[in-house]
User: What shape does this take?
Amino acid sequence: MTFDEMYSDMSDKLKNLVPEIEIKYKAELAYKIHQLKLERNALILGHNYMEPALYYSIPDFVGDSLELARKSAKTDKDIIIFCGVKFMAETAKILNPDKKVLLPSLEAECSLASSITVEDVRALKKKYPGVPVVTYINTYAEIKAESDICCTSGNAAHIIESLKADEIIFIPDEYLARNVARETNKKIIFPANGDNNIDDSHMIKYDLIGWKGRCEVHEKFTVEDIKNVRDQYPHAAILSHPECSPEVVEASDFSGSTSAMIKYVGETDAQNYLLLTECSMGDNIVAANPHKKMISLCSVRCQHMNRITLEDTYNSLVYDQYEIQIPEMILQKAYKAVNNMMEMV
Ligand code: 13P
Ligand code: SF4
Assistant: This one.
């Protein structure tokens, strides 16, 4: 690809979203990254939440957590640059222990991943011995290492149903777990977090044992937001990520992973769309579908995803930063949980 090809491609996609002067600057940077990527035999993966100028320039692949984990598992490149958050880069490292995996910003964390500790998981396993542990991919490697299998927003219900276990520990996202419980017709308790006392849980009939971690972005959307938007735009299609509360998911027209939402917008013909998820994704959809009208609630942003910029990605390639390191013992155990998921779907 030449600079002119990259610039004209970015201009085509971004002209209605980004001023021309900014596209020029970003295209110059993106082209430098592209050349370095080739020189260093690197693969760049970009999550659906990346800002449009990054999303539409440097990644070899874009997608949701599951799709990007799959792409990382198939690469023969020497280096993987993960334009996403730390748990995603860690998952790529778990699947590629011998490759260098770089995350462009150390600040790209995740409130769900920080919501649970190894001690918390061990306490749950002690309380419910022998009960399989399903862990959302939005967790750090040491939590995956304590788990039997991982899941993503795109396959959680399928994995919970496929296990055919009487009881399952499903951590750490309270809302994802409640949404999956509703979808699969299972009863969930949260014994370690208060609403069901840990000592009384044997009195209650339940199928899933959850943890009250939350996504700091998706927990902010409310049924009131949906009502307000429906009052103003009666024909809008409302889409929510399953990290939103069950009430919000129920009041929406569609709920699914970030890629499932992109697909839904592409395949339907509503007058307007409201995406209850990180705001950049709406911009990325409009860039590819200029005739679709998005309504955005952009006061709610993922501060972690937004840490990843073209500038940091360039520095990442120049200075080899920041390399994902996972102790060997944790890596091997986490690999089993991630690989069990990859084999199941
Ligand atoms: P997806 O797997 O649906 O892309 O979600 C990742 C995420 O962090 C959503 O907040
Ligand atoms: Fe984590 Fe929420 Fe940000 Fe996704 S949107 S990375 S779950 S904090």
In short: Residues 48, 64-65, 138, 152-154, 215, 241, 243, 257-258 surround 1,3-dihydroxyacetonephosphate (ligand 1) (CB under 6 Å). The mean pLDDT is 95. The two ends are 34 Å apart (CA to CA).
